[in-house]
Amino acid sequence: MKKIISLMLGAAVAVSVLIAGAGCAPRKSQAGVVTIGYYDGGYGTAWLDDVIDKYRAETGGEVVYDANSSVLATMESDLRDDNAYDIYISHGIPMERYAASGYLKNLDDLYTEEVSEGVTFEDRVIDSALEVSKYEGHYYKVPYTQGVGGIVYNKTMFEEKKWPVPDTYEDLVALCKTIRDAKIEVEDSYVAPFVWSGNGEEYMWDYLVNEWWAQMVGVDKIEKTVQYESMEVFDPNGNYKEFKQAYSLWYDLIAAEKGNSVSGVEGLTKTTSQAAFKNGLAAMIPNAHWIYNEMSSLDLGFEMGFMPTPAAPGTTGETKYNYLVGFGDSIVVSANTPNYEEVKSFLKFLARPESCASFTEKTNGTFLAFDYSSVTIDSSAVTPQAMTFIQSVKDKLETSVSFSTYSSAKISYMTNELMTFPGNQYFYTAAYTNSSSLINGDITPDSVFDYLYSYVQSNWNRWTIMAGLR
Q1: 377 near 388, Cβ under 8 Å?
Q2: Burial zone of 450 (CB within 10 Å; 0-12 exposed, 13-18 middle, 19+ buried)
Q3: DSSP strands (E only) in 111-195
Q4: Report field, pTM of the whole predicted structure over 0.85
């Protein structure tokens, strides 16, 4: 009897999976049903429900998804064991490694097909994302988002206090002093210039530091650096000198001036730092395009937006730069999907301007990695506060030279350790608290970058062997 009941329940689940539509997908592909493994983090699922509903209504095609935070953890074994979804949408997918292993579908034909009359899929993808979507000259992924990061500020507070948005680093330093000196009382304390997450998301300072680096050296040098052709690219007195200088600007602003941060930031998580920003404890927060969506459930009493990154000393500020946050986020297709034609149909639908508009509206400010020049955001579909934030993201994307530190070098994707801070070792919280288990003595720009260079030198031979380069 137990066995019969079990079989009956199994059959019921199988039927419910096929008819549930958006929000529930089987583990294996099934003919005629496009399945998506979706990393559920940051953007929610409202956009995916909306796009699927519209796709189903127009084409009759069936698409279902499984949204969870473990999609990436099981992805490689699923692909290897031919137990994969048709499509994966996630951050952190090592596209090149999976393509080299034969796990991913070559998407060259998708890129040549028309999304609308005279407009190919390749035409719709933003130019800066085309090359990083290739492995050995062929397309193996669709770039997911084009991100924005940097300083998010409380626009309402700035307007009420008549604080000017800083144009230069010197202006930013002066603004911080103005905010400190104002001694605006809030929750038994005073409004601080910044709040940030020192316990879990210190890396968000990278977005500001990377843009200062770009201001100093330009995009071409950054793109050359992240190919990691030798360990010497990390020489703090040579090729890496300007990145160290950019970090030093942060160090002088935050680590050397504790009054520029809310007290206790080293213990704040993403949630508690955002709550402090919401409660008016700080005027600014380093963050990315997903912050409004993450905070949208809170009762926000102010407008927020991105400010243009202030010009670093010695730079003109004439060229604005935008660090493409989350540029490793990807959409890939299983090599063994039985539904490739249906998959291409859905991805072309996703690339259409109306789908892009829906995505941005439903995520409160995130933009897909497609051309938005013909995309109209419906202001009636979002709150006025959200529209203000969306417009600030759009302004930064449209007025900046976008770049990323994403590396397509084999030594990077085969080891997952070569990045601007090698080994994914950040030194923001450590510098703020002047405490690190990795560095003896004071945590300064000199000690940090000497340590990083030494770390690279000690591990370079191991990395080149792992990457099959020797």
Answers
A1: no
A2: middle
A3: 114-116, 119-120, 134-135, 138-139, 142-143, 145-146, 149-154, 185-186, 189-190, 192-194
A4: yes
pLDDT score for 422: 96
Tokens (6 digits) for 190:
């005073």
Residue 270 Cα distances to 108, 211, 431, angstroms:
39, 22, 19
Tokens of 438: 């990795």
CA–CA dist 192, 204 (Å, integer): 18
For CA atoms 7, 13, 16, 18, give the dihedral sign.
Answer: negative
Tell me the C-alpha distance between 145 and 147, whole Å.
6
Residue 28: band (very low, low, confident or very high) from pLDDT cuts 50, 70, 90: low
Structural Rg of the chain based on CA atoms: 23
Give the torsion sign (CA, 12, 16, 17, 18): positive
Q: Decide: helix, strand or coil at residue 8.
A: helix
**In terms of C-beta density within 10 A (0-12 exposed, 13-18 middle, 19 or more buried), how is residue 363 classed?**
buried
The predicted pLDDT at position 27 comes to 52
Q: Residue 312: which of 397, 225, 398, 210 has the closest Cα?
A: 210
Closest CA to 37 of 79, 99, 85, 82: 85
* Mean pLDDT, residues 283-309: 93
**CB neighbours of residue 50 within 10 Å:** 16
Give 327's pLDDT tier (boundaries 50, 70, 90). Answer: confident
Q: List helix spans (H) across 325-375.
A: 340-350, 353-363
pLDDT surpassing 60 at residue 345: yes
* Average pLDDT over every residue of 268-288: 97
Helix axes 241-250, 445-466, angle to 10 degrees: 130
pLDDT of residue 42: 73
Task: Compute the average pLDDT of residues 191-212.
Answer: 97
Furthest-apart CA pair in the chain: how many Å? Answer: 79
CB of 375 within 8 A of CB of 366?
Answer: no
**Residue 369 near residue 328 (C-beta atoms within 8 A):** no
Identify each DSSP E strand in 5-70 by its residue range.
33-39, 62-68
**Which residue has tokens 């490739």?**
340
Q: What amino acid occupies position 361?
A: E
DSSP, res 134 = E
Q: How far apart are the first and last CA of the chain?
A: 61
Residue whose C-alpha is closest to residue 109's, from 139, 129, 142, 88: 139
Q: What's the pLDDT score for residue 317? A: 87
Whether residue 306 contacts residue 60, with contact meaning beta carbons closer than 8 Å, is answered with no
